[in-house]
């Protein structure tokens, strides 16, 4: 038995390495695809003489192929914007009469024509842009019914309620369907008169109900299964941000019903995630339509979160009472406990707020949701459990009290603001200790750390447009100018200076080396304290401590982590996971005194001067030390904390 266990351990370890390698390759693939798409776009624009609305990288909706063989030229793709298909009259009539809409939004008609032509399609469009129409309208223009796989019952209920209100017959089957209802639906699937045009099911139902599969097979043979829609298609991939195991089994649909076109919908998926979905769903050569992710009505901002909890709460409260007076919004927090405490702190400051998290009774959750939707509650303080299916148009602010675990998650969560197209703000509070709280939470996820560090990079960047940083994640090419000052980095571009942090970095590395020489592990907090000349003296004996403010020290440590001079190390107990700092691969470079390191900081002139002065002082001391033997450095007086101070 022991041998088996040993072999299992070794196989698992090997598997983990392979998974990491795959993750890295997928990341590389994303970057290359992004580059390829940018180049293709340039080529397309250079060759194409016809004026095209998709020529601006910022406002365009683009069409890409995710499969190697599914490249369609721009011209070929434009053919699908036409209105001379056999179904075009019916499409137009249903758009107006059934859906009561006058025109299509970008990419909707193209998607509809492609799916009605029998092509497999992935449609990547930001939330609220109108993905549903792209399968609902084809459903009413086709024989039989469309099968729709949706992860949440509440989403199904919303869709069915809406479809009923416009007289489009739709039904659902899920674990709580009564026997009677299931019987009627199963019979309806075989009825050539199609008593319903859309059948919504959960992925679990596909995985578990043999009866459903058998009926689908019969409907397929009778040409009554017109289309398969996989909503939130990114849930198939564990590289995505919302993996659901039952989605992994959906490949059965295309294997059993190869002639039925599939349409996968998502608001967030990178090309590597889509590639993975393609394999899982067994679709070969799907066409991917990607609408621009640029939400021009949203303003993005990152604020520094101080270690003093009440400072960020006060800041959030004053934003809500002043800037967002009488407006509706969401404050996202890290944990259920945070949801309770932040909500009660806001209430104490006379803000009508309510918590929302997974541990609440379902009735309480829907009660809070309803009151917020009807504006009786102004602010919902929620964990990410408050997610899919939020369709409130007038959310004027989404504030993240804690950073999201990835840029994709942040885009999705903050994107709940401004669905009505009117201006709205997305503000994230970037706190040092939050990085490590989240890190221990995502440590088990395959590329969890990597994604988190990308989010940290997004927050720390003060010299890159926030939109263009996000665009990379969606393989888009946005230019900073198009931002039009609707992010803090573009708005305050002139307040940013490059600061030499080489000396500071060396001080940190020396503290780490000292700890390692004592076989001690330093948590980020202990490292910080030692560097600031606090905590046990053994961690800093003979070493120079920092003259920077705490926030500045935090910024430097984060930079070192992002650049590989430091790295994470985890330790697991049965109850918790601890995060430690370790020297990263690049730390050795700092031994060479010609090696310099700089970072961009958004500082007031005074602060910028302070970092530089500390740097010069440090260099002078280093020089002196190399002549004299190193003595215990005096702990200098710390600077006053800066609110706006750092990246
Ligand atoms: N062509 C159109 N013209 C005007 N309104 C439209 C059009 N298409 C869709 N809409 C409306 C219907 C909905 O109220 C709203 C959002 O559509 P919906 O299909 O729910 O978005 P979505 O599916 O992309 O968002 P989510 O990702 O949140 O599910 O837009």
From TrEMBL:
Catalyzed reactions per annotation: dATP + H2O = dADP + phosphate + H(+); ATP + H2O = ADP + phosphate + H(+); Couples ATP hydrolysis with the unwinding of duplex DNA by translocating in the 3'-5' direction
- Which key words are in the record? Acetylation, ATP-binding, Coiled coil, DNA-binding, Helicase, Hydrolase, Isomerase, Metal-binding, Nucleotide-binding, Nucleus, Phosphoprotein, Zinc
Keyword ATP-binding included in the entry's annotation = yes
Q: What class of enzyme is it?
A: isomerase
Q: Can you say where in the cell this protein is located? A: Nucleus
- Tell me which InterPro entries the record gives: DEAD/DEAH_box_helicase_dom (IPR011545), DNA_helicase_ATP-dep_RecQ (IPR004589), Helicase_ATP-bd (IPR014001), Helicase_C-like (IPR001650), RecQ_Zn-bd (IPR032284)
Provide the coiled-coil residue spans.
1-42
Query: Could you tell me where the Basic residues compositional bias lies?
Result: 637-647
Biased composition of type Low complexity is found at 50-70
- Tell me, what is one Gene Ontology molecular-function annotation carried by this entry? four-way junction helicase activity
Region described as Disordered: spans on this chain = 49-70, 608-647
SMART domains (UniProt xref)? DEXDc, HELICc
Protein name, entry field: ATP-dependent DNA helicase
């Amino acid at each position: 038995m022991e041998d088996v266990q040993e072999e299992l351990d070794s196989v698992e370890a090997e598997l983990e390495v392979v998974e990491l390698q795959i993750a890295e390759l997928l990341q590389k693939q994303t970057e290359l695809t992004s580059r390829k798409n940018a180049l293709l776009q340039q080529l397309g624009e250079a060759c194409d003489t016809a004026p095209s609305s998709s020529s601006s990288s910022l406002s365009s909706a683009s069409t890409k192929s995710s499969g190697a063989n599914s490249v369609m030229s721009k011209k070929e793709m434009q053919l699908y914007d036409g209105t001379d298909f056999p179904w075009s009259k019916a499409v137009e009539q249903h758009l107006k009469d059934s859906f009561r809409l006058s025109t299509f939004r970008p990419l909707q008609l193209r998607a509809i024509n492609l799916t009605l032509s029998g092509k497999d399609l992935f449609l990547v469009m930001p939330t609220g842009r109108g993905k549903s129409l792209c399968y609902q309208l084809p459903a009413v223009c086709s024989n039989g019914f469309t099968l729709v796989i949706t992860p949440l019952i509440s989403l199904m209920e919303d869709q069915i309620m809406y479809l009923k209100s416009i007289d489009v017959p739709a039904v659902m089957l899920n674990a709580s369907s009564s026997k009677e209802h299931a019987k009627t639906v199963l019979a309806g699937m075989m009825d050539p008169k199609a008593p319903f045009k859309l059948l919504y099911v959960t992925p679990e139902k596909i995985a578990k109900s043999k009866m459903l599969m058998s009926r689908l097979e019969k409907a397929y043979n009778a040409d009554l299964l017109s289309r398969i829609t996989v909503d939130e298609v990114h849930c198939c991939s564990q590289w995505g941000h919302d993996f659901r195991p039952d989605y992994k089994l959906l490949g059965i649909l295309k294997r059993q019903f190869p002639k039925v076109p599939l349409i996968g919908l998502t608001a967030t998926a990178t090309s590597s995630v889509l590639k993975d979905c393609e394999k899982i769903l067994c679709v070969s050569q799907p066409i991917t339509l990607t609408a621009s992710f640029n939400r021009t009505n949203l303003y993005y901002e990152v604020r520094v979160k101080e270690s003093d909890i009440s400072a960020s709460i006060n800041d959030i409260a004053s934003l809500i009472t002043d800037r967002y007076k009488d407006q509706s919004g969401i404050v996202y927090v890290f944990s259920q406990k945070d949801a309770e405490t932040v909500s009660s702190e806001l209430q104490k400051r006379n803000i009508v707020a309510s918590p929302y998290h997974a541990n609440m009774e379902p009735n309480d959750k829907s009660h809070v949701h309803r009151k917020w939707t009807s504006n009786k509650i102004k602010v919902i303080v929620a964990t990410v459990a408050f997610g899919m299916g939020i369709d409130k148009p007038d959310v004027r602010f989404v504030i993240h009290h804690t950073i999201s675990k990835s840029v994709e998650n942040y885009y999705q969560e903050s994107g709940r603001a401004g669905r009505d197209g009117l201006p709205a703000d997305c503000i994230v509070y970037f706190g040092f200790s939050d990085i490590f709280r989240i890190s221990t939470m995502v440590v088990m996820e395959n590329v969890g750390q990597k994604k988190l560090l990308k989010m940290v990079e997004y927050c720390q960047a003060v010299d890159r447009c926030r939109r263009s940083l996000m665009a990379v994640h969606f393989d888009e090419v946005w230019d900073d100018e198009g931002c039009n000052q609707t992010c803090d980095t573009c708005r305050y571009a002139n307040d940013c200076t490059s600061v030499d942090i080489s000396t500071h970095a060396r001080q940190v590395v020396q503290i780490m080396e000292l700890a390692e020489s004592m076989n001690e592990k330093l948590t980020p907090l202990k490292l910080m304290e030692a560097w600031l000349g606090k905590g046990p003296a053994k961690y800093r004996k003979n070493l120079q401590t920092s003259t920077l403010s705490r926030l500045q020290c935090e910024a430097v440590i984060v930079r070192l982590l992002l650049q590989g001079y430091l790295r994470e190390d985890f330790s697991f107990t049965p109850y918790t996971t601890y995060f430690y700092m370790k020297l990263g691969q690049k730390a050795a470079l700092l031994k060479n005194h010609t090696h310099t390191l700089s970072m961009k900081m958004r500082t007031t002139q005074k602060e910028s001067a302070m970092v530089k002065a500390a740097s010069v002082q440090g260099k002078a001391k280093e020089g002196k030390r190399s002549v004299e033997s190193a003595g215990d450095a005096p702990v200098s007086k710390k600077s006053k904390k800066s609110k706006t101070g750092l990246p």
